[in-house]
TrEMBL record:
Its EC number is 5.1.1.7. GO terms for molecular function: diaminopimelate epimerase activity. This is Diaminopimelate epimerase. Catalyzes the stereoinversion of LL-2,6-diaminopimelate (L,L-DAP) to meso-diaminopimelate (meso-DAP), a precursor of L-lysine and an essential component of the bacterial peptidoglycan. It comes from Marinicauda pacifica.
Amino acid sequence: MNGAGNAFVLIDARGRSAPLSLPAERVAAIHARHAFDQLLTLETHPVETALLRVWNSDGGEVGACGNGARAAAWLLFEQDGGETLSMSSRGGRLTARRLEDGRAEVNLGRPRLSWRNIPLSRDMDTEALDYEVHLPGGGRLTRPGAVSMGNPHVTFTVSDVSAIPIAQIGPMIEHDILFPQRVNAGFAEIRGSDRIRLRVWERGAGLTQACGTGACAAVVALHRQGKLGRAAEVEVDGGRLGVRWAEDDDVYLTGPVELEGEVDLGGLLS
Ligand SMILES: N[C@@H](CCC[C@H](N)C(=O)O)C(=O)O
């Protein structure tokens, strides 16, 4: 599947009697069979519609994936019908509703804004971090906003996102000592009070076509800095995402999802 170009392999393991065991070497073997940005699993949950788990392509299990949650919700609606559902995830409880056009809108909950919750390695104002990055050709990026959407993000405001050498500076930011759990790094060009262009270097996956939690974190961070309204269309390399930071403080994400086909994982899940 993909969500605005963010590539997934999704294993629907609901109804399986034994819990799925996915150590890093098994995630790597699945990635070698069929490359993905994130591996997603759906398992049976005693209370919620399903349990959603997420691994990056580097084999690390993570707390949240906005596009993955949208893709999983879309699949559950396609298979089981209904108008609303809930999923348990490491980053918290997620709810989703089916929109009239068939898309799924996911509620990713409240953004976490304190330095301990991002997390950062020391006390700092998360609205505009005292942190700067020097660009290889000269110039620098400063004062990114930091937000956790169940996973850590920083968003830099840039004047021309196509001019940023993301593949060069992304790994450096991801592994900076300021971010004890590493970080996802977003670069946002503001195109209006409700429109941005965004590219994200994802922790554990590199530069992807779209990052849903990155889009949510960008809207929250830029709104806190007075640069954007509470809702925006986020143009990413693989399409357009819709983000709304509602008055109840929850962040809602929607956008396109495609089911591309099935992958034969025979022998890899036993
Ligand atoms: N592509 C995802 C984010 C996946 C997890 C992220 N790379 C992390 O390590 O936190 C999205 O759509 O949110």
